[in-house]
Amino acid sequence: ADEMGGVWSPDGSQIVFNSRRVARLDLYLKPSSGAGAETPWLADSQNNLYPGAFTPDGRSVVYYNGNASSKTGNDIWSVPVAGERKPVPVVQTEFNETYPRVSADGRWMAYVSTEAGRPEVYVTAYPGPGGKWQVSTAGATTPRWRRDGKELFFISADRKLMSAAVAGQGTTFTVGTVKALFDTTIRQIGFAGANDINFDVSPDGQRFLVLSTQDNA
What is the pLDDT of residues 68-120, one digit of tens each? Predict the structure, then answer.
């Protein structure tokens, strides 16, 4: 079966990923050491599930569902790692919300929403309720935090790796200078809502690992 979208637990001991072993994509949990078998972890009889990230304390996982045809489209949920795995909605609107990532202090969540008519990066208070701030303005996907929470990275619609200076204080979040760092050859599957994870950033924000694709591939 397909196995995709692996995300690390904060201590590096576990990985949550999704796999199409039945008629849909469910979430599975496995020790990162490779020991033992993966465990079916969370399923939804109506939706594909896509892992976003563990929260910094390792107690929850944020993910999004794949029901774009429903009245609320793709929604972002949070589910506890231990105990009763009862998901609760974090962002649920009539638009499509995808790619959730929680900041290192656990207070903010970056995600992608189509509420502006195209995918854009937003930040909201986590776990909420709270405000919402738009970070990108010309189409964007796949947000990633710098470890200290002072910078957000994302891929623009024209395939540039972008940087936004950000700051959260109290209940207010501020978006400063947004600039392009460099061009990429990432194939923008993400704008169609697929489960691609096409880049990541080192904790200090100085190095990037980018999945490059030839345009004619």
Answer: 567 778 999 999 998 888 999 999 999 999 999 999 999 999 999 999 999 99
* Contact present, 59 and 14 (Cβ < 8 Å): no
In the structure encoding, which two tokens stand for residue 40, read together?
A: 């079916």
Asked if 63 and 45 touch (Cβ cutoff 8 Å), the reply is no
Asked whether the beta carbons of 89 and 76 are under 8 A apart, the reply is yes
pTM of the entire predicted model: 0.91
Through-space distance between the first and last CA atoms of the chain, rounded to whole angstroms: 23
3-state helix/strand/coil string of 167-215: EEECCEEEEEEEEEEEECCCCCHHHHCCCCCCEEECCCCCCEEECCCCC
d(CA 126, CA 193): 22
Four-residue CA torsion sign, 78, 83, 86, 88: negative
Integer-rounded Cα radius of gyration of the chain: 16
Tokens of 133: 């701030």
Contact 197, 187 (CB under 8 A): no
Contact 63, 80 (CB under 8 A): no
Report the SS3 class of residue 40: strand
Helix (H) / strand (E) element for 110: namely: strand 108-113
